[in-house]
């Protein structure tokens, strides 16, 4: 387990991405993969109120409802660290105080829980003063409906400003950041933003940790994986640099005897401030290829091999 920033939460080093719940994994498949994750020692599940509004026939809230049904069926709420988000769903957009309050109540109801362990601002809202947003989050923490608050998709400038305001006003502070970060998407996070997270002891929980499936090794030049909902996004990485990254992952995976996806996640876990990459799996077989990353470390030479390939 790893301590989540300055919070009192101890989490498994691979966070289960709940975007598949109620979407590419129906309820039966969702229960099965969550059971497998919990049996392997996993305790950290990430969702959002907007999941899975993008899917045909869906309107949002499906992931939270599916997760809530599993928690109720298994009776294991106290063993799990549950994270969800507000602000990016068309039905409840933005980070106004009124929207945060209403959205939190909705998420609590769908999840069937009395509190949310980690509640994110899903994306920065430039149209709402940070003071209003942070005050609303603080109210939820004081009311016991949220344990800790966090940010997702914030710039270094806005994240630093949010932390300053929270300290000045005595509000609950963000304890974590969820950025878009992986071996083939490095520029936006590395540098000013990563240095801020290190300096402020913020847990970093990267989403798209496997680049929409590209870093699983499933997508190759000349291959056909059109059946996957993420195939088009993953294939976008199949340029010269992407092929070099795959070659490095293949080499290390073969030498270590572990799946390619685990090597990609281990690279993230070796980066400063990273607490737990977020990765999704539709079934136990997919999840089994991710979990070894929790138990092995890449050598300095292996890290350099991947850094060079992805530069």
UniProtKB/TrEMBL annotation:
Residues 13-309 form the NADP-dependent oxidoreductase domain. Pfam families: Aldo_ket_red. InterPro entries: AKR_Detox_Biosynth, NAD(P)_OxRdtase_dom_sf, NADP_OxRdtase_dom. PANTHER family: NADH-SPECIFIC METHYLGLYOXAL REDUCTASE-RELATED (PTHR43364), OXIDOREDUCTASE-RELATED (PTHR43364:SF6). This is Aldo/keto reductase. It comes from Saccharopolyspora griseoalba. The lineage of its organism: Bacteria, Bacillati, Actinomycetota, Actinomycetes, Pseudonocardiales.
